[in-house]
Amino acid sequence: MTYEEKKSRFIAAIRAVAMKESEEIISAVQAYIETELAKAEEELRRETEAEVRSKISKIRRQTGAQISAAQRDAEDELYRCRAEIEEAVFEGVKKKILAFRQTKEYDGYLAQGAEFLNKYFGSDDEVKLFYAPGDEGKLEMLKSIIKASVEALPDEKISLGGFRAECRAKRLAIDDTLDTALEQQRERFRSIPELRLGESVN
């Protein structure tokens, strides 16, 4: 075998090894690329899902806040509406009470209240009678009915009429004012199911 033939065989053998190594390298690189791409795709998917979940959570919080704000606005409007209705109703009642105070029926109301006091106070009792300013002309009539000894005192807190009686010895007070009667009616008014906001809002 000549030198040239040996040289050609050696070069052919080197080329064969080089080609094999090259193919293996290319195959390894391709596998690495595919693996890294798969990792990148998985990472991107996780990041995307996390971002979507974050956005959904944010939207839910914002929506919840908007709903809560809208509900609060609705409740505030209901409170204002009920307050307006209540005020209108009781302003009308006050006017009727003040008109009633100018009638003979009011004298009958006071006399009935004075008779009621006699169930609790006798002639040996001393009673302070707090009356509405403007009712001074009714005092003689009241004193003539009440059996107890009466000290009559005006009370600015009684604006609509009636009176309040107190006996310190018996530690007893009786409120027969129209102011208290009206406030009791106001409480009943607020307890009407249709006007109870907790139920109507829900």
Number of helices: 5
For the biggest β-sheet, the strand order reads: 2-1-3-4
Number of domains: 2
Residue-averaged pLDDT, rounded?
Answer: 80
Tell me the structural class: alpha+beta
Count the strands? 4
Question: Share of helix among residues?
Answer: 55-70%
* Low-pLDDT ranges: none
- What characteristic shape results from the CA principal axes? rod-shaped
Biggest β-sheet: count, sense, barrel? 4 strands, mixed
Helix and strand pattern: HHEHEEEHH
| Rg for CA atoms | 48 Å
* N- and C-termini, Cα separation: 106 Å
Strand content: 5-15%
Notes on the protein architecture:
The chain has 202 residues and is of the alpha+beta class. The longest helix has 98 residues, at 3-100. It has two domains: 1-100; 103-189, hypothetical protein PF0899 fold. Helix 3 links the parallel strand 1 and strand 2. It is built from five helices and four strands, in the order H-H-E-H-E-E-E-H-H.
Helices and strands in order:
Elements: H1 3-100, H2 104-117, E1 126-131, H3 139-145, E2 149-154, E3 162-167, E4 172-177, H4 178-190, H5 197-201
Parallel strand pairs: 1-2
Antiparallel strand pairs: 1-3, 3-4
Question: What's the gist of this structure?
Answer:
The protein is of the alpha+beta class. 68% of the residues lie in helices and 12% in strands. A hairpin with a 4-residue loop joins strand 3 (162-167) and strand 4.
